[in-house]
Amino acid sequence: MACPEWSEKLSAYLDAALDAEQTAAVTRHLETCPDCRQTLQEWQRLRERLRALPVPPPEAGMWRRVMHRAMRRVPARRFAMPRRLFWWMAAAACLVGVGLAWWWQQATPPSSLPRTAVNLLVGYHADAMALRLGDCPTWHLVASNELMEGE
Amino acid sequence: MSEKRAEEFERLVRTHQSALYRVAYRLTGNRDDAEDLLTEALTEAWSAFARFQTEDGFVRWVATIMTHTFLDWKRKANRIDWVSLDNPTPEEDDEGEGGWDIADENADPEAVAMRRQFWRDAQKALGDLPPEFRAAVVLVDMEGLSYEEAAQVLGCPIGTVRSRLHRARAMLRERLKHWLQEP
Fold first, then answer.
1. Scanning every residue of chain A, which has its alpha carbon at the shortest distance from the alpha carbon of B143?
2. Is residue B179 part of a domain?
3. Mean pLDDT, to the nearest integer, of B132-152?
4. How would you write the pLDDT of chain A (151 residues) with one tens digit per residue?
5. What is the pTM of this model?
6. Residue B76 has what pLDDT?
7. What are phi and psi of A15, to 5 degrees?
8. Which of these, B50, B48, B17, lies nearest to B35 by C-alpha position?
9. Residue A123 has what pLDDT?
10. Which end of chain B has fewer CB atoms at under 10 Å, N or C?
11. Which structural domain, as residue segments, surrounds residue B48?
């Protein structure tokens, strides 16, 4: 382990990034400190081995894909959502939204129904369903009135 | 942008593609992320190419964009999948990452195994560094930039580069100690 007070200077010494005075001071210290000498040697080996660390070749067709996207400003793969997936997700979100609104309309007593956008969107449709099912006499009456008003 | 400018951009990328890919790979540690990083950086470079003047600094310019994009990804979210022991390794998949030029049919099998093991240990140790430290190691230790050049790329003072590099080296030395002993 290098001497703590010399450690950072030793790292900069390795990169020849110290001024002449500091370089001379580190050189003098190294003559008397085997721990710092060992640290310096190991950092030298580390740098050599890292620099020689092989880089695998890119995957086939990588440059063609990269340039195609870069020149057309298409986001990288990790950020890109396939167009078809986007439309399927949009359609699914719409269906879920309408389904939830319809369910909420069914589950809520008609007298307490607020006049919301959802109510306006699916209200008459839901009322017509209730009319057909005939399972809610009160609602039946209200729905009939609303239908008549609507007409 | 004009067709001539597009051709010029493509020519510059073709000329320097191995250096650009090497920096991207060293920053991210795997091929998929290197490809995404290159895509993002070259998209930005192409958008700003009208302002780019001299060919000399093309690699440095794109490397700067890549480094900032990489650090930005890491800051915003942990989007980069660091190389892990779960990823294909030379021993598990010679066609995958690591199996390309480490393997040599004529080489001593033991030496090949050692090189593969070092590659794997080094990738893991680099991947465990804080991103700013890793960027400093990539730029100075692996790409051979001076502190001044690395400070320009990272957009920080020289003293910060020096300090990050020192701490990164101390961490890497600790992790890879058994590979750095006297032979």
1. A51
2. no
3. 96
4. 789 999 999 999 999 999 999 999 999 999 999 999 999 999 999 999 999 999 999 989 999 999 999 988 776 655 555 555 667 788 888 899 999 988 888 877 655 555 555 555 555 555 555 545 444 444 444 444 444 444 4
5. 0.71
6. 79
7. -95, 10
8. B17
9. 54
10. C
11. 1-82
Other CB atoms within 10 A of residue B1 CB: 12
Residue type, A99: G
pLDDT tens digits along B61-77: 999 999 999 999 888 76
Residue B23: inside a domain: yes
Question: Who contacts A16 (Cβ-Cβ below 8 Å, separation ≥6)?
Answer: A23
**What tokens does A137 get?**
């006499």
Residues in chain B: 183
Residues in A closer than 8 angstroms to B36, CB to CB, are 76-79
pLDDT of residue B149: 95
The pLDDT, as a whole number, for residue B65 is 96
Q: Which residue has the tokens 């939204």?
A: A97
Identity of residue B19: A
Separation of alpha carbons B154 and B65, rounded Å: 9
List the single residue in B32, B141, B170 with the smallest CB-CB distance to A51: B141
Closest CA to A53 of B133, B126, B80: B126
Q: Give me the residue label for tokens 């450690």.
A: A7
Residue B45 lies in a domain: yes
What's the rounded Cα separation, in Å, for the pair B134 and B122? Answer: 12
Selection from B27, B138, B61, B13 nearest residue A65 by Cα: B13
Other Cβ atoms within 10 Å of B108 Cβ, number: 9
Report d(CA B8, CA A71) in Å as an integer: 12
Domain-located, residue B159: no
Q: Encoding tokens for residue A88?
A: 């399927």
Complex ipTM: 0.82
Determine the residue among B52, B115, B166, B182 to mutate to test chain A binding: the one whose Cβ has the most chain A Cβ atoms within 10 Å: B166
A40 touches chain B (CB under 8 A): no
Give the total number of structural domains in chain B: 1
CATH number of the domain that residue B61 is part of: 1.10.1740.10
Task: Please provide the size of chain A in residues.
Answer: 151
